[in-house]
Amino acid sequence: MSRLLHSVARCVCHSSPSRHITTIPSSPIRHITSLTPVSRCSSHPAGCSAILVKPCRARQLPARRTVTTANCQQAAADLSTTSCSQGADAFSLVESSLGGMLEEIHMELRAQLVLDTEMGEIARYYFDGGGKAVRPCIALCVGQLANCHNENIEEQGDRVRRQKQVAIVSEMIHTASLVHDDILDHAETRRGKESVNVKWDTRRSTMAGDYILAVGSRLLSQVGDKEVVVILSQVLADLVQGEFMQLQNKEDESERFEHYLTKSFNKTASLMAYSCRANAVLAGVSSTMVEHAFQYGRNIGIAFQLVDDLLDFIVSADQLGKPAAADLKLGLATAPVLFAAEKFPELNEMIGRRFEEEGDVERAFQLVQESGGLEETKELAKKHCEAAIAALEHFADSEYKTALVDMCDKVLNRMK
After folding, report:
1. Which of 77-81, 218-222, 312-316 has the highest mean pLDDT?
2. Which one of 155, 223, 274, 388 counts the least CB within 10 Å of its CB?
3. How far apart, in whole angstroms, are the C-alpha atoms of residue 327 and residue 312?
4. Which of the 8 DSSP states describes residue 269?
5. Which of 411, 192, 181, 235 is nearest to 311 (CA)?
6. DSSP single-letter state for residue 39
7. pLDDT in tens, 82-105
8. Averaged pLDDT, 328-345
9. Closest CA to 5 of 267, 342, 355
10. Could you please report the per-residue DSSP string of 48-80?
């Protein structure tokens, strides 16, 4: 196990993962990490949690390959023998609720236009069904998980409507961030078609991205819960901070992975984590259970980004729907590169100059392939998925619980 992996499997503060970090020893990936509360920080109301390693035996999940669960105590949920549907799939469970999501978003984007201008067309461009819809799916499943835990599943009505609203807002925030990302990165393709900034131009695309956020904010206000508004407002702040961090480059090599993880939380995991928190709040569960919902979203979000960065090195451009090695071409050092730099120190100089010299991108790509950095990135993603599963053990058994465990497997093994 690399020294670098020892330094990054750590406790991360909610909206600023670089603060209040507790280093832990790494364990073999076949063992599960469990989340145990430690001293609370004053920066966030819910505090922080540390990841502690606890070996346990493997347990077979329904209709999946063998993975391990978060805790081996008798009190832990045995997900293979719960009363819920075997092999529950998160997307299938929320299909009836989210099936019309894109149509609803299109309707809202049209409704707020005084005139049906070109901006409406641009704003709707990425809401074409080409996305994975992972974020709204997770948000709604966690909401239903919390509803089941609170034994108020029969009293859904308005509660589920508001949780669905949070899920829709999460997709709108995500899509607006894609628009702005493509503008800043001068992207040429997205999901296998021309990116918004290529099809139109930077100025129009920027305004369209802002418009999506504005309509999403209006929908958020209609949820009717002040705490939820505050929670999801943090996502917007995190996204901006994450994008700003991407423009920076740490000169100190020892700080680069921490910087990368903080950026990954802000740009990707924050939206998943706070959407889960918001829907748990709407379910009316205790603050402790709200925190567990947050930890699930945070850890699966970080795992999602780690896998995304991994795919940039192993999947073709046609499969990704965007150019391969895109991050290197943008001058970004992601987890595979940072792990590889431990074996090939020459990468540190390339990272420092953001791969700007001729041949840097090709050489860095080759060194990553030879280093074992891809395997270490996958291993770190696994650890975060295991921590996400650990957070679920505190919830009552339900088909949503099984589906959310299965979602971790989907995230780890996706190819696009």
Report:
1. 218-222
2. 155
3. 7
4. I
5. 411
6. P
7. 333 345 899 999 998 888 899 999
8. 95
9. 342
10. -EEEEE-----BPPTTS--B--S--STTS--TT
Nearest to 101 by CA among 181, 199, 169: 169
Confidence at residue 304, expressed as pLDDT on a 0 to 100 scale = 97
**Angle CA 312–314–316, to nearest 5:** 80
d(CA 249, CA 252): 9
Q: Around Cβ 15, how many Cβ atoms within 10 Å?
A: 19
Closest CA to 224 of 162, 285, 143, 147: 162
Helices (H), 68-128: 90-93, 95-98, 101-111, 118-124
Looking at every residue in the chain, the average pLDDT score rounds to 80
Greatest distance between any 2 Cα atoms in the chain: 63
Separation in Å, CA 180 to CA 75, 117, 176, 185, 318: 46, 20, 6, 9, 22
**Does residue 136 carry a pLDDT above 50?**
yes
Q: With 70 as the cut, is the pLDDT of residue 16 above it?
A: no
Distance CA 262, CA 13 (A): 9
The torsion angles phi and psi of 67, rounded to 5 degrees, stand at: -130, -175
Buried b (16+ CB within 10 A) or exposed e, 124-162: bbbbeeebebbbbbbbbbbbbbbbbbbeeeeeeeebbeb
Q: How far apart are CA 179 and CA 1, in angstroms?
A: 38
What is the per-residue pLDDT across 176-209, written as a single tens digit (0 to 9) for each? 999 999 999 999 989 889 999 999 999 999 999 9
Residue 251 burial (CB count, 10 A): 9
Residues 6+ apart with CB under 8 A from 203: none
User: Under a CB-based contact definition with an 8 Å cutoff, are residues 54 and 32 in contact?
Assistant: yes
Residue 280 Cα distances to 13, 43, 90, 413, angstroms: 19, 21, 17, 27
How buried is 254 (Cβ within 10 angstroms: 0-12 exposed, 13-18 middle, 19+ buried)? exposed
87-113 b/e with 16+ CB inside 10 Å = b? ebbbeebbeebbeebbeebbebbeeee
Half-sphere exposure of 109 (CA within 13 A, CB side): 28
Within 10 Å of residue 237's Cβ, how many Cβ atoms? 12
